[in-house]
Amino acid sequence: MNESLHRHLSLQRSPQWTISLQMGFLHLLPLLCFCCVTGRCEDSLATPLPYSSFSSSSVYGRGYGAGYAKLNRKQGAGGWSPLDTDRYQWLQVDLGSRKQVVAIATQGRYSSSDWTSKYRLLYSDAQRNWRPYLQDGNIWTFEGNRNSEDVVRQELQHAILTRYIRFIPLEWNKDGRIGVRLELYGCSYWADVISFDGTGIISYRFRSKKMKIVKDVITLKFRTTVRDGVLLHGEGQQGDYISLELSRARLLLSINLGSSEYGSIQGHTTVASGSLLDDDHWHSVVIERYRRNINFTLDHHTKHFRTNGEFDHLDLDYEVKSRNLTFSCVESSSSPVFFNSTSFLQLPGQSNGDTLSVSLSFRTWNPSGLLMFTELADGWVELGLVEGKVTVYMNVTQKKNTRIEISSGSSLNDGQWHSVHLNALENHAMLTVDGDEASTVRTAIPIQVQTGGVYFFGGGDSRSLQRSFQGCMQMIHIDDHLVDLRAVEQGLIGTFENVTLDMCAIIDRCVPNHCEHGGECSQTWDTFSCNCSGTGYTGATCHSPLYQQSCEEYELQGQSSGAYWIDPDGSGPIAPFRVHCDMTEETVWTTLRNNLSPQTPVSSHDQYGKAVLQITYNATDEQVSKQTSQSCSFVSSRYGVPFTWWVGRANEKHFYWGGSGPGIQKCACGIENNCTDPGHFCNCDAELRAWKEDAGLLLYKDHLPVSQVVVGDTSKSGSEAKLTVGPLKCRGDRDYWNAASFTSPASSVHFQSFPGETSTDISFYFKTSSPHGVFLEMLSPGTRMEVSSVVLLTLEVGGELVQLSVHSPRPLNDDEWHRVQVEKNIKEAVLVLDGRHREVRAARTQAHAKLELYTDLFLGASSGQRSFLGCMRALRINGVIFDLERRAAETPGVSPGCQGHCSRYEMHCRNGGKCVEQYNGYSCDCSLTAYDGPFCTDDVGGYFETGTLVRYDFLPDMGAPVPDEMKGSPGWGLSGEANLTREELVFSFSTHSAPSILVYISSRTQDSLAVVLRQNGTLQIRYSLGGLMEPFTIDIDRRNMANGQPHSVNITRSFREIRLQLDHYPLSTYTLPETSDVHFNLVKSIFLGKVFETGQIDPVLIERYNTPGFVGCLSRVQFNSVAPLKAALRSGMTAPVSTHGILVPSNCGASPLTIPPMSSAHDPWHSETAGSVFPFKEEKKRADGVNRNSAIIGGIISVVIFSVLCILVFVVRHTFRHKGSYHTNEAKGAESADCADAAIIVNDPAFTETIDESKREWFI
């Protein structure tokens, strides 16, 4: 017997040696069989078999027999074809003995139009109790052939051990018939088996009396029809044990590596796996233990766990017991029936009998369904499952449709086998569930029972109000006789439809449990659902976190300080926990509080005079350790005693205190040399009779948090101590800002492969100004995510290409941060953009394989596509943060952080222009300014001839949408008429013409603003806002502005305060009278050069200033965000502007401001500088004084050269000046200027030419 045991059951006890059943006091108790498998397989199993090893449901003709269904054979008709072409056909192969099958290959019937395109496989050891091949928790459908000759091979995800295999055609060529030739691949399987009757025991002796082991490997296979029983048990005298048992058809592994005598250490650990294990099919078990780490594998599903307690060895004693056992496996006599939603089974019974007796066993997941229906002579009886209870309805038509109802049991839709017995005789009925006679339900019936003789099981009668039954039945008895289901299959008795005889294909969709993070799984026959309440997670499988990863993320969402739940690892294993977020400072602080009150007295102590204070937090150690990426600090103080230490992470002792550091056994006063007693390094060591304090911050985060404080010498007379341990405070969130910049269309960041999961999530933030690009690629599974006007995700799951796309109402290349979240789980694929826009795609039934992320991951494109250009940050996959900055520093074309051109101090666009990032540079958006050019520094101006005017109209605000083509135009600053309390008017002009109107702004009321040149050339501003008899005027009498020189004007009003900036004169402030209104109501139009409008207009303007009109140059005209002159001069812009007369573009004598191009050495987007850190300021510190002196000398030389060139230019211009130019003292230079204006003109590079020189451009 021991030799047999060596062949079929083994346990590895150490790396050095392997023996069989090396478990002290090992018990094997239930009615079951054990076996094992050895060898590698790739042999042809079907081809060597004789013709007689093949059988089928039917044969189309003599040459179409099952024995001709061998791969590549042409004998007979070239393959098997059944007589009927429907789903009830099957081809069976008898392998002669149990074999391990790893693959199947199929062809169509030779040179014909007969082939099978989809099929299933069933297998069995005894041509009964067939089991369907399962994959990914489903009855698997294989893809077959598309013609008659090509060979299609399908590898089995899990090998099957069987003697008989049935091929079940599901779909076939519509223009032909079912046809197949096949081959099975595998190898011989050899194993001994032992049959247990529930009382047998095997015990085995160890080689030594006691075994103390750190490593075990136990492997076995079993099958049984009993749901409870012990498979394996071993124990030792010190309380260690290991046990493997079935409980309600689930497998429980219990192990204890040791518990302490007083119970402070509890080593007992129990883990459950599997379900429905009483199905009389073989199940494999592998238990691997190394110290406290255990892998528990059942039928290829592995659970990883760690035992409780602190011990690593399994201590077992040796005991020997033996009893007689049978070395064979007894076959079960039960034969199940499988029902789907359209099935029924019709069976005969005794007619006109006075007793109704029906019993059966069933198992199902559905809470409701019809079990049995039969007609009586005076009514009918219905037996069904209603909300998990077995319910009987009896309808008696003889007594005016009297309805009788009885029910028993609860929660019977748990997938377990349950027995039901209904007995009705004479004038009463009895219902018994699960053989519990004590709970039998009885009721009286008003008639004598007279049976009808026909019984429907599972469905089939339209009078029943119950839905069809989905599940399995067995042990069906009618009139106390067991129904012969083989006779039913052969058509000898009864009939059936869509019923599978001799098979129970029930699937537990909650094992393994796909509901993550403690979600509760519930199921029906077709699907499962997860209840995520109270888990902190959401989604179809409770995978996605409900909470943000840090206080920093809450702050960026606009939240304020308070208590929040955070989940630092997202969908990872660490549960969310509650913290306090302080967002009042520039830096966001996260606070974890502990259980210790401030100044807690230290009183109780042990026999050694030491008091131990345990510190706990509102988070587990694992949750706290997740914060190690953040700066942490403790506020800590202690009073009164020496010999004190604290315990931090990893249970290490530390002897330094707040204000000190690791390895320095001092307090803060010892570091600063100001302790009370200079002979000690802590105030509390002075042993004075007054309270002294040692306090400060603990900043070394690898030692935090404080979990225990030990205070010594507390038993000393007159000694007292008080302790305060402040909260754990963490600053910022480094992971949240971990970013990389992609600067080349061919750039990509490579990460090594990582394992896939049943549920996989990807999340990141991005911003870009590029119109399209690829975010990430995983080439092997065909996964790609890209951005254009939408975010597009392509996944290959289960052989099917799934594509999801999400649109955004605003452009995605707006250089603003956007967030992308992806989740693929067993039920669905979800793509979310910015937390609001989403698309959900349900997974196919057979697409439940893991997302194949075993290939390498590329951020950007690696297959010739255009890569994403811009910034990406906070990339997280399955709760793991990817270090983009570190990898970017090693990758050409990618730089750490998100530093573009717009972050450079010297590269800001001027005059209100908006900086727009581009992957190889930047551009300035000048559309809402009065300037042009690459940096919004070029004047936009025009020369007005006599009578020329520009009119800009504000459209009435009628609630109509603003045209898209006008929203970005420089002349479209206000959506319609406006009532203003603040406005800013900016413009430049040069003229010799006076009087004239420069700018006039009208309204639909009598409100207006006018800027005019009076007869003497001085400037006047006229405000009329209502409430005054005459406009409020501001006169600037200091000089003649009609001198042909460029002048700039900036008028800003805020309620009553008016500020005027004229050229470079000091800023002047004026105040509207109290009687004046402060609202500029219903702004209507802007006039430049002249007013041409009907209605009430200031008569002074028309009489004194409007004729003949402004002659000269206007530029830089902007009213708030409206640039009317720019809109009039740019023909490609759409704006409500019109021009009368001749308007000639001109720069009005102003030279554009130039900005030198940036060299590639300082270009943060340049690929050769990837990985550099760029300052935000122009000034850079020199490494030494030599460089600094060289820079000073070079600067002096440059200034001298520039001065000489300027003198030469001035001399040349003075010598060769053109005839007709205006010569005034103001234009000769600052040295000879007789007023401030002359000095301004000379010193301001924007004012270098006169208006006459500007005019000469157009008339030469």
Describe the protein in words.
The protein is mainly beta. The protein contains 12 helices and 85 strands. Strand 35 and strand 36 form a beta hairpin. The longest helix is centred in the last third of the chain and has 31 residues, at 1185-1215. The N and C termini lie far apart (120 Å). Mean pLDDT is 80; it is low at 1-38, 320-324, 628-642, 847-853, 958-976, 1151-1188 and 1216-1260. InterPro entries: ConA-like_dom_sf (IPR013320), EGF (IPR000742), FA58C (IPR000421), Fibrinogen-like_C (IPR036056), Fibrinogen_a/b/g_C_dom (IPR002181), Galactose-bd-like_sf (IPR008979), Laminin_G (IPR001791), Neurexin-like (IPR003585). One of its GO terms (biological process) is cell adhesion. Keywords: Cell adhesion, Cell junction, Disulfide bond, EGF-like domain, Membrane, Phosphoprotein, Repeat, Signal, Transmembrane, Transmembrane helix.
How many H/I helices? 12
How would you describe the shape?
extended
β-strand amount? 35-45%
Q: Rg from C-alpha positions?
A: 45 Å
Coarse structural class = mainly beta
Low confidence ranges: 1-38, 320-324, 628-642, 847-853, 958-976, 1151-1188, 1216-1260
Largest sheet: 13 strands, antiparallel
Distance between the termini: 120 Å
Helix content: under 10%
